[in-house]
């Protein structure tokens, strides 16, 4: 599915992507992340999430293709939600720090339903 955003005044395409779900903005949900390539572990903040990906605030920039093991503490009584993700982009945003876009590699039905139930 391809989405397009139009500017009403000029009716020109501004942005196009392949997102499956709408991304919901969040306010700094804590995540524990393991870089599978190096074994390094670090804390990150989840800034936005959908059923197919997420945006993380990280302490450093990562190469495209880096694999992450992500653990989210979701207060739904079931313990941490563990996801496997691949970095699709990572960039430094001036005083906002580094933002990293991650696509979920194992979007199992139960994982996606927990995300959608809690955040949407």
Provide tags for this entry.
120 residues, mainly beta, Thrombin, subunit H, 6-stranded antiparallel β-barrel, two-stranded antiparallel ribbon, 8 strands, 9% helix, disordered N terminus
Describe this structure in words.
The chain has 120 residues and is mainly β. The protein has a single domain, classed as predicted glycosyltransferase like domains (Thrombin, subunit H), CATH 2.40.10.220. Helices cover 9% and strands 51% of the residues. The protein has one helix at 109-119, and strands at residues 3-6, 13-17, 24-35, 41-49, 53-58, 67-72, 81-92, 98-104. The longest helix is centred in the last third of the chain and has 11 residues, at 109-119. The model is unreliable at 1-17 (pLDDT under 50).
What's this, in brief?
This protein is mainly beta. 9% of the residues lie in helices and 51% in strands.
Distance between the termini: 20 Å
Radius of gyration: 15 Å
Strand order of the largest sheet: 3-4-5-8-7-6
| CATH C-level | Mainly Beta
H-E order? EEEEEEEEH
CATH fold assignment: Thrombin, subunit H
Number of helices: 1
Q: Overall 3D geometry?
A: globular
User: What structural class do helix, strand and pairing data support?
Assistant: mainly beta
Q: CATH homologous superfamily name?
A: predicted glycosyltransferase like domains
Percent of residues in helices comes to under 10%
Largest sheet, in brief, is: 6 strands, antiparallel, barrel
Average pLDDT, rounded to a whole number, is 76
The CATH level-2 architecture is identified as Beta Barrel
Question: Into which percentage range does the β-strand content fall?
Answer: over 45%
- Poorly predicted ranges (pLDDT <50, ≥5 residues)? 1-17
